[in-house]
Write a structure and sequence with these properties.
- By secondary structure, the chain is of the alpha/beta class.
- It is 43% helix and 9% strand.
- The chain folds into 3 domains: 89 residues, no CATH class; 106 residues, no CATH class; 323 residues, 2-enoyl-CoA Hydratase, Chain A, domain 1 (Alpha-Beta Complex).
- Helix 2 runs parallel beside helix 13 and helix 7 runs antiparallel to helix 12.
Length: 590
């Protein structure tokens, strides 16, 4: 566990992670030392003791190096990668801490040699069109059906099939003139050719598209490659080191990736970003794709959400918040949204409330988060009402606006939060906050994604720097939120990428759940009031959920009864079940 180092003032040393045109192995080593000692990186405090063990981290560093150097898998064969990834005999962590990058430089040397040989072959045979007949033969022979047939025979995906595998199956004489690496290039050309052909819509003939494909592969994969020049090679190493810490930390030499995403969008995109409407039976429905910050002209998600709550509350008897496929976003925004639905005056106690405000709305200044747009005259402002806890005290939000003398929207009305396994991060904060407050039930897949961490940007470095917990101190890291009612509709809860989705617990080197967590109100004068309030609400909610599940069991709703494979039909059936749950909820209240 390589953390026995002298104390480093990490804040003054963070310059290493800024864009540096020339970075040395010494810089890489220094950057690594900073990260594994830095209090900014939470894994040092909460992860298991093996997290920085060389046997645990070195395979991931090696994986990330190959992903950076050879993203198209053109320059190293599978056999070469297996051999080169035998890092233990090289002790790359120990090397790195002493400023020795010989293992990495050895791989980089092999990469450059392979790239040069492929580039020479490409220029001589492919770009000169000497191999045009060969390319046509290759593309026409390895059709989709042929590839599927070969995959079945070899029992592995096409991307992992080598030239030797094919030759062992059958003697393809036309393949005899190329080697394994050249075979990989031909596979990439074939894949890109199909893609260009599909997007072309018959505007050009196949010969034109093939030439376009060949030049594209050369420009992107071989001519440029992952490393443009010698100055970049150690940036690749530093990036591999940071990417290996956990699934959400990363480093880029170019800081474009950390630039703020512009929230100004056209009207058509706004519709897909945020939807709110009144469904049948006076049921309010709100769906949004992510937790976006305010733009120069556009609202933030909390403004859109709260304005919709205000508009729909008087017209509807219940609310569905649909956060399926919502991968999260701003934590500040989700806390404001929780504040609009949870009775903050009971949580905080009257002594915590600020002075009465009597300004007119038009006189209220906008703060940089846009929250002031939501204020109304004569409301008492509560400046400290956390809806979320952190494992680091400095991350506690102390200046969010909640209002003591206003009832929450949809007070005492049924609220359903609809989730799936792609509901992550801020989406999980919203769902868990409402679930633990006892004012909403969570419906959908058995568990959500399970991302209980948050990241901050430090120059060109994005670092996982906190665990968030619920008001009561619950962490969902790896485990996700457990639905109160599980709906197992085969298509309705699946996005286009859902079946390929890897949840947090299956991500490489995902951080363990923190060992010691506390409620957001721990050490507060109001902690006992908060705990008793949540306890009473949760007890009542527990009885309700038991009743609703009993009603579902009586209806005998089974997956096998849902035969339609049409996604729209599945969605319709799913909402029919949710409407029935809301009807049962009203029956329970009465």
């Amino acid at each position: 566990m390589p953390i026995n180092l002298p104390h480093i003032n990490e804040l003054s040393k963070m310059y290493i992670f800024r864009t540096i045109s020339k970075i040395s192995c010494k810089n890489v080593a220094e950057g690594y030392k900073i990260l594994i000692k830095s209090p900014l990186y939470i894994a040092n405090d909460v992860a298991d003791i093996e997290f920085f063990n060389s046997e645990k981290i070195e395979p991931f560093i090696a994986d990330n190096i190959f992903k950076h150097l050879d993203p198209n898998k053109l320059f190293f064969t599978s056999t070469e990668i297996i051999e080169l990834k035998k890092t233990q005999q090289n002790n790359i962590i120990k090397q790195l801490l002493s400023g020795n990058c010989s293992w990495y430089h050895g791989i980089f040397k092999k990469y450059e040699s392979s790239k040069l040989k492929l580039s020479t072959w490409y220029q001589k045979d492919i770009l000169s069109k000497k191999s045009n007949n060969f390319i046509y033969t290759f593309i026409n022979f390895f059709t989709t059906n042929k590839i599927l047939s070969i995959e079945r025979l070899l029992q592995k995906p096409w991307a992992k099939i080598s030239l030797n595998d094919i030759k062992n199956l059958k003697d393809f004489s036309f393949l005899g003139e190329i080697n394994n690496k050249e075979f990989e290039v031909m596979k990439v050309i074939r894949g890109e050719y199909n893609l260009f052909l599909k997007n072309n819509n018959n505007k050009h003939d196949k010969n034109f598209i093939l030439n376009k494909t060949v030049k594209h592969i050369y420009d992107v994969a071989i001519n440029s490659g992952a490393v443009y020049n010698d100055k970049d090679k150690n940036h690749v190493f530093l990036s591999a080191i940071v990417n290996s810490l956990d699934p959400h930390s990363f480093y880029k030499k170019n800081d474009e990736i950390f630039m703020r995403i512009e929230n100004n969008v056209d009207e058509s995109k706004k519709l897909s970003r945020f939807q709110s409407k009144l469904l049948n039976n006076n049921i309010a429905y709100i769906k949004f794709s992510h937790f976006y910050n305010p733009g120069f002209l556009d609202n933030s998600i909390s403004e859109d959400f709260i304005q919709s709550l205000k508009k729909l509350d008087s017209k509807s008897s219940s609310l569905i918040i649909d956060i399926r496929d919502n991968l999260g976003g701003s934590i500040d925004e989700v806390i404001r949204m929780l504040g609009s639905l949870i009775y903050t005056s009971k949580l905080a106690g009257s002594k915590s409330c600020g002075q009465s405000k009597s300004k007119k709305i038009k006189d209220t200044p906008y703060d940089n988060a846009g929250v002031a747009k939501l204020k109304e005259p004569d409301q008492k402002e509560l400046l400290y009402a956390p809806m979320i806890g952190f494992n680091k005290a400095e991350k506690t939000f102390k200046s969010l606006l909640f209002f003591c003398n206003r009832k929450p929207y949809f007070d005492k009305k049924p609220i359903v939060v609809l989730i799936n396994k792609a509901s992550a991060s801020s989406a999980e904060i919203l769902a868990l906050g409402l679930q633990e407050a006892g004012i909403a039930i969570v419906v959908g897949s058995s568990n959500s994604f399970g991302k209980g961490t948050s990241q901050s940007n430090y120059d060109n470095l994005r670092l996982t720097d906190l665990f968030w917990t619920s008001v009561l101190g619950t962490s969902i890291q790896k485990s996700g939120i457990t639905s109160d009612i599980v709906l197992k509709f085969p298509l309705a809860l699946k996005s286009k990428y859902y079946k390929f989705l890897i949840t947090e617990k299956n991500l490489p080197r995902a951080l363990s759940k923190p060992l010691n967590v506390a409620s957001a109100w721990s050490n507060s004068k109001n902690e006992s009031n908060i705990l008793s309030y949540f306890s009473a609400k949760k007890l009542s909610q527990k009885k309700l959920i038991k009743f609703l599940n009993q009603q579902i069991k009586k209806r005998n709703t089974k997956n096998t009864a849902i035969l339609s494979k049409n996604k729209k039909e599945q969605e319709k059936l799913m909402f029919k079940e949710i409407f029935q749950i809301l009807k049962d909820w009203k029956k329970y209240k009465n």
